[in-house]
Amino acid sequence: MSTWGGPVDVTLTGGRVVTPGGVLENGWVSVRDGRIAAVGEGAAPDGPTTDVAGGTIVPGFVDIHCHGGGGAAFTSSDPEKVRKAAAAHRKHGTTTLLASLVTRPVPELADQVSALAEMVQEGVVAGIHLEGPFLSAARCGAHDPAILCPPEQTSVTKLLDAGKGTVRMITIAPELEGAVHAVRQLVDNNVLAAIGHTDATEAQVRPAVDAGASVATHLFNGMRPLHHREPGPIGALLDDERVTVELICDLVHLHPTAVRLAARHAGLQRTVLITDAIAAASVGDGVYDIGGLEVRVVDGVPTLAGGASLAGSTLTMDMAFRNAVNSCGLSLVEATHAASTRGAELLGLDTGKLEAGLAADIVVLDAELKPRDVMVRGEWVKD
Question: 3-state DSSP call for residue 322?
C-alpha cells in the first residue's frame, strides 16, 4: 500500500460500526474533507455511498510502541526505510504510530532522533518513543546492557533537543539514580514518562508515578514478576488509576488470561494494545539486528541469538485486535478502545474514534476481522 487514491467524500454503509457507545449493527460513517462528518444507524444520508458488504468499520489503529516492519527499522537514517516500515503497518490498519528506538549511546541516539524528527514533520510517523537507554540491566531484555545509563538531566535534555518537540514518550526504570527528577523533566516538556525494563519494588515505583509517570511499557514483560508479598512494578502500575498499561497481545509475550485480567482490571481508560514490532513484522523468519544485537526470528517469534529472551515481536495491530477479541474475551468496543482510542488520547491526537469532527482514519474489517480497506485522513490506501 504505497500509492494514494486521493481524498473522497463518501458514506460507508452496509456494515457494523464500532463506536465508543456501542456497535451499530446497520451503521454508516460519512466522510467529508478528510474528516468524519457524521456517524449513524439505519438509512444513510443522501450522497455518494460505498457498501462495505457486511464488514466491520473501526477507527484506524494507533500503535504507540513500534520499532519497525516490512524489513525496515526506525533506527535507519534512510527516509525510504522509515516510510517502508510505516507503510507495512498501514497495510494492517495502523494509521498512526510512534517510531520506537532501542538503546544506543546517547550521541548516536540523538542522531537517530534528529533524523526521525523530519519523518514526524512529514507526517510519516506521529512521534518518537525512546525505549532506552535509561533501563535496568537486570531487566534489559533485547537492549545492550553495556550501553544502559542513568537518566541524567543533560542526557535527557540532549535527546529532547534533538527531537525538537517530536519525542512523545521515554521509558525509564524508576529505581535508577535521577529517575524521579527525569520523570518530572519529561512531564514539564509534555513528554509521556513510561515505566519499563525495571527491577523496581513497588516502593520504588510509587515516587515515579507521583512525579507524573503515566504509562507502563509492555506490562509484565521486562519487569520484576508479580509476587503476593512484593507486588513490584506490575502490581503498582496495574493498580494505579493514573497509569495506562501497554499490552503486547501476540499470545506469545502474554497468555490470553494475563491479557484479560490486566484489561479487565485497568478498564477501558487505562488499556492500550501495542505491537513492539521489529523489522520482521510483515516479512517473516530470518536474522535481524536490534540495536547492535543479533535477533533470530523462528516461527514468527524473535529471540536474541544464543538466548531465550524475547526481542520484540512480529505483531501487527490488526492481529493484536483479533487476538484480543477471539482469544482474550474482549468485546469489539473494548478491543477498539485499546487498539485505537486510548493511544490517540495519550498522544492528544484528533483520531482514534468514529466520531464526527475527528480525522477520517478508518479500517474496514472482513468477517474474520482482517483489514479489507484502510483510509487515512479521508484517502483510501491503495496496494
Answer: helix
Q: Determine if the peptide bond prior to 133 is cis (ω within 30°).
A: yes
Quickly count: other Cβ atoms within 10 Å of residue 203's Cβ: 12
- Exposed / middle / buried, residue 260 (Cβ in 10 Å: 0-12, 13-18, 19+): middle
* Beta carbons of 197 and 140 less than 8 angstroms apart: yes
Burial of 269 (0-12, 13-18, 19+ CB in 10 A): exposed
Residue type, 221: N
Residue 9 annotated in active site: no
Active-site residue (options: 276, 318, 361, 373):
276
pLDDT digits over 5-32, tens only?
577 999 999 999 999 999 999 999 999 9
Q: Where are the beta strands (DSSP E) in 199-309?
A: 215-216, 244-248, 271-274, 286-290, 293-298, 301-304
Q: Of 117, 140, 156, give the one whose Cα is nearest residue 196.
A: 140
pLDDT at residue 272, as a whole number? 98
pLDDT in tens, 140-192: 999 999 999 999 999 999 999 999 999 999 999 999 999 999 999 999 999 99
Contact yes or no for 248/275 (Cβ under 8 A): yes
pTM, two decimal places: 0.96
State the Cα–Cα distance between residues 198 and 221, nearest whole angstrom. Answer: 9
What distance in Å separates the CA atoms of residue 210 and residue 187, rounded to the nearest whole number?
11
Distance CA 336, CA 354 (A): 10
- pLDDT for residue 5: 58
Mean pLDDT of the chain: 96
> For residue 33, which of 59, 6, 60, 9 has the smallest C-alpha distance?
9
**Is 314:280 a contact under the CB 8 Å cutoff?**
yes
